[in-house]
Amino acid sequence: MKHIPVMVEEVMMFLRCEPGKIYVDATVGCGGHAREILKRTSPDGVLIGFDWDENAILEAKNILEPFGNRVKFINKNFIYLIESLDELGIREVDGILIDLGLSSLQLEDKERGFSFMAEGPLDMRMDQRIKVTAEYLLNRLSLKELETILIEYGNERWAKRIAKAIIKQRERSPIKNTQTLKKLIHQVIPKKYHTKIDPATKTFQALRIKVNNELENLKKLLAIGWCCLKKGGRICVLSFHSLEDRLVKESFKKLESEGYLRVITKKPVVPTIEEVKRNPRARSAKLRCAERI
User: Fold this and answer.
1) Residue 2: pLDDT band by 50, 70, 90 thresholds?
2) How far apart, in Å, are the Cα atoms of 32 and each of 3, 25, 52, 208?
3) Which of 58, 95, 171, 292 lies 20 to 30 angstroms, CA to CA, from 32?
4) What pLDDT is stored for residue 192 in this prediction?
């Protein structure tokens, strides 16, 4: 399935892409937003694309090849934004985009273990250099630790029940693949609570967030990312669940109160009904934007 970037027009409008300017795509993924930024900053705009997923960098390089040396790639987590720009000799940029969604490349590679739609190992690492996998967590953490992860990162109502079932299952044999975990969750959550959204969704989300330290990394980026913006430069964040959106909202509000940023989106911008019909993965997206003062 081709990856479809979310809220492209809205993102471009808030970033105010113009020729001759420098933009950062902190999660370049499959290059969807990056391609639009490069098109709209033609002929001499520059884009720096970060991604700690090596496969994503390879895919983006292929997709963005027509733009030549107008695009530079950095295979690092976005928490290294400031020092990576320094290494390139760049002190300030005109805009930063942070798209926190998973790419189709990640979701559809069953060997990555992000999705419960197909059988695969419980990996979930965005960067293969990370040592801890979802399988490791499931088979090593205590009942209380598992329950805490499911509550904090998944807002899972049935966290205790799921955690107990995981402990019981692994006493018989280790939990090693996505379908074993999915079936276990389906069994312990009462049938009447099986809705259009798969019962395993929150558990998989929680494990992925924990494996990749996603919220901690986002906090770090939000705390420092604005520092490399020029005056009038903008930072846009696309989030896909409430924990991320809350972090962005609170960070922007704090930086505004300290006189560093001006919040452009008083409420998050959400995709149109038409876009959600075209791309169901967009349904939970929220876009927030702030400007350097």
Assistant:
1) low
2) 8, 10, 17, 23
3) 292
4) 86
Contact present, 265 and 287 (Cβ < 8 Å):
yes
Distance CA 261, CA 292 (A): 5
> Residue 99 phi/psi, 5° resolution?
-105, 110
The single residue listed with the structure tokens 């490349």 is: 105
135 and 279 housed in the same domain:
no
Distance CA 204, CA 223 (A): 27
pTM higher than 0.90, yes or no? yes
Domain total of the chain: 2
Instruction: Give the separation between CA 73 and CA 80, rounded to whole angstroms.
Output: 13
Determine phi and psi for 105, rounding to 5 degrees. Answer: -55, -45
CATH number at residue 287: 3.40.50.150
Cα angle 40, 83, 286; round to 5: 50
Provide the domain limits for residue 201: 111-212
**What DSSP character marks residue 225?**
G
- Taken as a whole, the chain contains a residue count of 293
Block residue for tokens 């293969």: 128
Residue 1 domain-assigned?
no
Which residues pair with residue 269 across a beta bridge?
Answer: 287
